[in-house]
Amino acid sequence: MDLQIDGNAALVTASSSGLGKASATALAREGVDVVINGRDEDRLAAARDEIADVATGEVIAQQGDLTDEDEIAALVETTVGEFGGLDHLVTSAGGPPSGPFLETDDEDWYAAYDLLVMSVVRLAREAEPHLQEGEGGTIVNITSRSVKEAIDSLVLSNSVRMSVIGLEKTLSQEFAPDVRANAVLPGPHETARIEELVEQGVERGEHDSYEQGIEDVADNPLERVGDPMELGDTVAFLSSPRSGFINGQSIVIDGGTTGANL
Ligand SMILES: NC(=O)c1ccc[n+]([C@@H]2O[C@H](COP(=O)([O-])OP(=O)(O)OC[C@H]3O[C@@H](n4cnc5c(N)ncnc54)[C@H](OP(=O)(O)O)[C@@H]3O)[C@@H](O)[C@H]2O)c1
After folding, report:
1. What are 62-110's pLDDT values in tens digits?
2. Do 139 and 168 touch, CB atoms closer than 8 A?
């Protein structure tokens, strides 16, 4: 299927690794010019080279911290300055620390809110006029299946990410009809984040070993964790006119892990 986004421009945040990188790769393969982002310059440069190998458009890497308002504005400015517009905004971010509620303090809560929610607020605000200018502007927020079903030892993710869904639903109404907004809700995918969570679970005694931990998180009807590109391809589809009547939705990509009917 031709996604009909060749020549468009995208900003994908937190994309030097994992799900953001996979989303940027999927867009770049379709001929979209992409700005990618992360804090660590070496990791970012390596990701740019990897994506450029399969891209048919341009790939620009811009270092920036998503908790910094000015660096967020600079990401949008670079995309528009280099590519002449911004058609697709894909928001990802790092994950908040894991652990039980009583081990979190106020600082942890504010930090999680800043990283996961305020980054999306600021990106949407900066991107909106440019998204409206193009034909078929889209926003896709990468969040977590934790908004559908609370996950053990992830109180910050379970709580704070709900705000992103409320925001996404509101944007799908306020930015329409020219801009659509949707969210993807990943379950376990093979990225650095899932390795980190399993390692922390082993330290807390929740899994007997790392291997056991990976088996535990892959406990779903498909009996495996997701390939990041499976999520990336969905993000590219949601960014394309091929999904033109999908708006304000939260799509769970978890191999059927989540038990909720809807
Ligand atoms: N993978 C999963 O199984 C899974 C499941 C559910 C939800 N999620 C969520 O999906 C999101 C992405 O996860 P992932 O698996 O892609 O993780 P990942 O492979 O660890 O990648 C995280 C990316 O975010 C960047 N990043 C982190 N903090 C940043 C900041 N303050 N400013 C700019 N960039 C930042 C990292 O680069 P630098 O560190 O260099 O900045 C990296 O590029 C996370 O919120 C995660 O919790 C993941």
Report:
1. 999 999 999 999 999 999 999 999 999 999 999 999 999 999 999 999 9
2. yes
Candidate of 15, 39, 44, 70 to mutate for ligand 1, largest count of ligand atoms within 8 Å of Cβ? 39
According to CATH, the topology of domain 9-187+227-253 is Rossmann fold (3.40.50)
Supply the pLDDT for residue 121.
98
What's the distance, Cα to Cα, between the start and end of the chain in Å?
A: 27
Domain range summary for the chain, segments of one domain joined by +? 9-187+227-253, 189-225
Question: Atom 20 in ligand 1: which residue has the minimum CA distance?
Answer: 193
CA–centroid distance, residue 96 to ligand 1 (Å): 9
User: Best mutation site among 12, 13, 19 for ligand 1, i.e. most ligand atoms within 8 A of its Cβ?
Assistant: 19
pLDDT 10s digits, 125-134: 999 999 999 9
Q: How far is the CA of 231 from the centre of ligand 1 (A)?
A: 14
Q: What would the pLDDT profile of 224-250 be if each residue is shown by its tens digit?
A: 999 999 999 999 999 999 999 999 999
Q: What is the token pair recorded at 71?
A: 């660096």
CB neighbour list of residue 22: distance below 8 Å, 6 or more residues apart = 228, 229, 231, 232, 235
